[in-house]
Task: inverse folding
């Protein structure tokens, strides 16, 4: 009789200990996941000031989608075709600061940024600024891309992509991705995700001033 | 299962992020939780469903979108956006008669003019009307979707869908 009670008590104690351990493990794991998610949300595609100010280029950034792998490097040359079928090369704009923006029709943040690029191109036209958009839709017809660009309200050149440019600019999985290139063809900033108009303007001014007047 | 055992499993399932128990929980509630990270930000939760053999019925297939991300609903508000769509194959004598999707929730981009979108976030079901044979069969297909975070987007993806049906 007494032995049964002790055994039951021992089982209950063991169960409580087990349950407590599981709850603690679950809570710990949940907090860890929440921290991870917060970190991801802060880094991937948010208009994080850090992305506009840090200057840590280089190739040792692993799979970090925010890594500025091309920062400080010479912008790789390319020749693509615009929506009218005309060949456009980066070298056509030698001596100009260039904004190279990768976007897609399915990307709402891209479509919010693009009218700002248009406004800024108009604003800095006298200082030679050129904005080039590179469409990243897979297999979309040129006329559909043209219709989307018209709907978004941009008139700067929209270029159709090829696989070479994705490789040469080491594009990640996320768009928009934008490269700010100075008059000497050097990449002075690289951003992933949409940014505020003020940050875009600051990057453009950096590209203009970096190349010298 | 004893009462104490059921209590133990229930608590374990509540704290299902604990690495010890996800399989037991999955079997209990028929969710095929995949704890590993999924590259495309969406995972299939229902990988094992019990059905009544030979009778038309609706089976809900549940999916989960990663926290901090959303995908377009089946009927996005902007025609340029890519709708979420389940494409099923006919296999093992399973007859699929149609599918229905939940309405999306409203989501406004927290930047610029704040475009309003119709999206799925967190868990969402796709209801499939089907007739399954007696015994084991498999529902195969692909979920087409396109995911975005708060200020960036991921290319369109195709998630393989494979659901074991147990016809009773």
Result:
């Amino acid at each position: 009789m007494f032995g049964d009670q002790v055994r039951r008590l021992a089982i209950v104690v063991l169960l409580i200990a087990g349950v407590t351990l599981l709850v603690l493990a679950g809570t710990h794991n949940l907090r860890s996941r929440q921290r991870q998610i917060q970190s991801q949300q802060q880094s991937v595609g948010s208009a994080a000031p850090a992305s506009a100010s840090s200057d840590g280029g280089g190739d040792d950034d692993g799979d970090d989608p925010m890594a500025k792998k091309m920062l400080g490097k010479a912008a790789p040359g390319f020749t693509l075709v615009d929506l009218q079928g005309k060949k456009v090369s980066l070298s056509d704009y030698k001596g100009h600061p260039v904004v190279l923006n990768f976007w897609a029709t399915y990307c709402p943040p891209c479509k919010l940024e693009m009218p700002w690029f248009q406004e800024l191109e108009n604003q800095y036209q006298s200082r030679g600024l050129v904005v080039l958009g590179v469409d990243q839709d897979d297999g979309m017809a040129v006329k559909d891309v043209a219709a989307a660009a018209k709907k978004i309200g941009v008139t700067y050149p929209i270029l159709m992509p090829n696989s070479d440019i994705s490789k040469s600019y080491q594009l990640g999985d996320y768009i928009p991705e934008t490269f700010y290139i100075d008059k000497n063809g050097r990449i002075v900033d690289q951003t992933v995700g949409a940014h505020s108009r003020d940050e875009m303007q600051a990057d453009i001014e950096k590209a203009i001033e970096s190349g010298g007047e | 299962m004893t009462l104490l055992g059921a209590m133990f499993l229930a608590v374990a399932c509540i704290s299902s992020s604990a690495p010890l128990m996800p399989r037991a929980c999955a079997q209990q509630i028929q969710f095929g939780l995949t704890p590993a990270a999924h590259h495309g930000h969406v995972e299939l939760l229902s990988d094992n469903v019990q059905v009544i053999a030979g009778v038309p019925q609706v089976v809900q297939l549940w999916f989960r979108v990663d926290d901090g991300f959303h995908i377009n609903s089946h009927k996005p508000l902007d025609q340029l956006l890519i709708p979420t769509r389940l494409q099923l194959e006919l296999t093992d004598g399973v007859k699929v008669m149609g599918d229905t999707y939940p309405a999306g929730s409203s989501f406004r981009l927290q930047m610029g003019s704040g475009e309003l979108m119709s999206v799925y976030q967190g868990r969402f079901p796709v209801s499939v009307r089907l007739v399954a044979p007696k015994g084991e069969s498999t529902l195969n297909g692909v979920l087409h979707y396109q995911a975005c975070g708060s200020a960036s987007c991921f290319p369109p993806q195709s998630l393989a869908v494979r659901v074991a049906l147990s016809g009773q």
Q: What stands out?
A: The radius of gyration of chain A is 25 Å. Residues 32-60 of chain A have pLDDT under 50 and may be disordered. Chain A has two domains: 1-43, 50-210. The interface with chain B takes residues 11, 15, 18-19, 22-23, 25-27, 29-30, 33, 37, 40-41, 44-47, 104-113, 116, 136, 138, 148, 151, 173-176, 192-196 of chain A (CB under 8 Å).
